[in-house]
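worker-3 :: picked NTF2 domain-containing protein
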Amino acid sequence: MTDKKACCIKRFYFAKEKVHEQTYDSLDCQKLGEEFCKWFYQLLNAENPSLAQERGDWGPQHFWDNSVLKFEYNTTQTNREEYRGAQMASLRLLSLTREETLIFNPNMDSEGLKCANTPHGLVVVAVAGTVHRDNFCLGIFEQIFGLVNCPVTKNWKIKCINLKIIGHNVSGPSESLTRPCIKYETRDLEKLL
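worker-3 :: tokens ->
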């Protein structure tokens, strides 16, 4: 694992930049969201065996012990699942890439990524994107993360995740889809905290 990957979430020391020294009032929430999403999806997608990438340090250490994953997926019907605890949330997300061989492609432009924070230091990151398996585009996803900074380790950790996957009936190689976008406004995200 490269030094950059190892330090990626640790107080956001990206490539030795000292982004972490900002106060919460001046925290660049959008930059934090962008860097978090790059780190998260690279780490999660690397667990997909069809990509043959070097695996990172995916695991429950990136989640709070009392974290919650709410997962909804629509294929032919709507299914809802909920997982409590760092281990369960981590394992369910891992199974999406490792066993189900899904690949998440987040839309990192301003329509696909929105962030908000509170004076208490809580951060919400909402991201939209497409979901793939091999050369097939299976549909779109929306994912909302609640991040909380750990005062002991000085790391941002995942407190909650809401993941929604909407499947499309695609029977051939990847087709062009409208880039998914987050319809939440910053004030809407703040209400989720």
